[in-house]
Amino acid sequence: MTCTPVTSELTKEVAIEHCGKIINNKVNRGPNAKACFDVDTPHVRKALANHMFNHCGAWHLYDFRASSSICWAWTAKGNCFQRSKACKGHKEDALVAARREKLCKVKCLPAQPSLTEKVTKSYCSKLVVNNANYGPEAVACEDEDTPLVRKSIANKMFHHCGAHYLYDFDNPAGTCYAWSKNCWKRETRCMGHIEQKRMVARKANLCEVPLVAVKGKRCKATPYTFKPTASCDGWSGLTQEQCTEKCSSHAKAKNCPRKTCRAAVFYAKTGWCHLVDSCAEIEPHDDATAIVHEVPMKAIEGARCSSSYYTFDVADKSKLCDGWSGLTAAECALKCSGNEQATNCPQKTCVAATFFEKTGWCHLHDTCPDLNKNPATTAIVPEAARWCKGSGTKKAWSCDVISDRIECENSFTRSEDGKHFLQCAVTASGQCLAAGGLCKPVKSKNEARR
Predict the structure, then answer these.
(1) pLDDT greater than 80 at residue 429
(2) CATH superfamily of 212-293
(3) Do domains 212-293 and 297-382 have the same CATH topology?
(4) Residue 372 has pLDDT above 50, yes or no
(5) pLDDT of residue 412 exceeding 60
(6) What is the mean pLDDT of residues 373-386?
């Protein structure tokens, strides 16, 4: 049975192909369609692009993501799609679900865990282009925005190298930054720009970054679901899983604002749950569990990074720097994804870890140019990391086998000398091409046991 190809971006042509015109029954199904809550806009447009509505006059719209419980109803008040419970269980729900089943299965594009020089150079030939800094030292004009800016750059939320507009990874439809002399500044002039449409579409094709619970910790930032003077006080009586879902779905607590949730704090004794829109730092707290975004990592058994650990320095016997011992692979992965600092070791941006199964020893790397065989170790690397299988492999498969434009732009080729990666690109004729061959992702025997 032939499946229906998935459409990666909502364009005027796509909307007209579905319904003959952009506006039907007062509902905007065109490329400027939006959600009433900005964070939902990428998914609203992906749903419209793939006909996740029953008919062209329908006001109900269903999420493209099969695992999602979110649906929207058109509201003329704001000319936008509003989250709604009325569409769940509606007869249209089952009809759209059947249409979704006929779509071809496609993998989302892995999200990059952190901004490193290697990540930037996979997109751009230089760290600074057209005076704008895209490197790991890039900063926002407001300190609290710097982690958000770096996360956005790491996931190429800019149209091209040299662009002075950068769109927020978590909320590209509602937050953008413009380059200003020596930093990225929150701006409104980049809103509605043609580049924004491309970044909104890109966001809908990126994998969701999962949340992980860290016991005994909480975010330092004040939750936006806690303002007693307004009777805003989160939720009580929840399980940890339910609290995680509140953040994943950017839920709105009673009398509280709806914002982009970037982390949550859960108190097991009371089941109290609060959401925060910024969690640059976490602090110890005996009764709390911080629910934060986990960097997707994979475990490659029998391998380790070719670079040295930055968590190993025994020159000074009185101040040994020697990573951690007695951990599980999942705990080691968390040390890397959280850029944690081992005792007496420097604080750096972790891009990979080496885990010793027998002892539970864990060491971190700030570079990982290649993987070497080692039967005693497990390399823990970002899910998005790609290497060729063996240094002798020059062409595993070509860029031109990729038909999806966004997937093409997120794929990489090995350079002629085999020492680094170049990005695939779409030519003026619409072909996905680049010099050399695209390296196959290393197949992990198992995910870092999370």
Answers:
(1) no
(2) Hepatocyte Growth Factor (3.50.4.10)
(3) yes
(4) yes
(5) no
(6) 77
pTM over 0.70: no
Q: Per-domain residue ranges for the chain?
A: 12-101, 117-205, 212-293, 297-382, 399-445
Structure token digits, residue 35:
């959600």
CATH match for 297-382 among 3.40.50.2000, 3.40.50.2300, 3.50.4.10, 2.40.40.20: 3.50.4.10
Show Cβ contacts of residue 335 under 8 Å, excluding neighbours closer than 6 positions.
324, 327, 342, 350, 353, 362, 364
Map the chain to HEC letters.
CCCECCCCCCCHHHHHHHHCCCEECCEECCCCCCECCHHHHHHHHHHHHCCCCCCCCCCEEECCCCCCCCEEEEECCCCEEEECCCCCCCHHHHHHHHHHHCECCCCCECCCCCCCHHHHHHHCCCCEECCEECCCCCCECCHHHHHHHHHHHHCCCCCCCCCCEEECCCCCCCCEEEEECCEEEEECCCCCCHHHHHHHHHHHHECCCCEEEEEEEEECCCCCCEEHHHCEECECCCCHHHHHHHHHCCCCCCCCCCCCCCEEEEECCCCEEEEECCCCCEEEEEEEEEEEECCCEEEEEEEEECCCCCCEECCCCCCCEECECCCCHHHHHHHHHCCCCCCCCCCCCCCEEEEECCCCEEEEECCCCCEEEEEEEEEEEECCCCCCCCCCCCCCECHHHCCCHHHHHCCEEECCCCCCEEECEECCCCCEECCCCECCCCCCCEECCC
pLDDT tens digits along 201-260 = 999 998 877 787 877 888 889 999 999 999 999 999 999 999 999 998 899 999 999 999
